[in-house]
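Subject: Transcription elongation factor GreA

B.,
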Amino acid sequence: MIEREIFLTAEGLEKIENELDELKTVRRREVAERIKQALAFGDISENSEYDEAKNEQAQMEERIAKLESMLRNAIVIEDDDISVESVSVGSKVTLKDIEFDEEVEYTIVGSAEADPYEGKISNESPVGSALIGGEVGDIVDVQVPDGIVKFEIISIGR
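Prediction pasted inline below.
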């Protein structure tokens, strides 16, 4: 499997490291204890508690492997690396939706960190990729399922 670079802000890196630490130190122990308790019930061929605990263990180990891979391939974007001249990963961008005359603010992050509900959009998303390289005053066209949305870049920050 080809592993690709993962762009992370310092905040995103910390969040992934904390999740990984929690999974390895706390959750592994909890799941192992559940498996041990389920084994105490005897015959595992019809033991739903055992099956459920083993499935949870497999999902958790898969998540651990994914997080470790992300950290191995992480490119951390430090605040000093973020330009305020043009939009890049890590930029906080204020946009004006030209059609609705509304302002929105997004932080451009790598796909692993994206959370639209927190205003964090991926550099690979339609809006994120359209904004990359843009400068204050630029009007960018974003292809969406309903057509094209036009945004004006109002400000770029860190």
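Residues 12 and 18 are 10 Å apart (CA to CA).

T.
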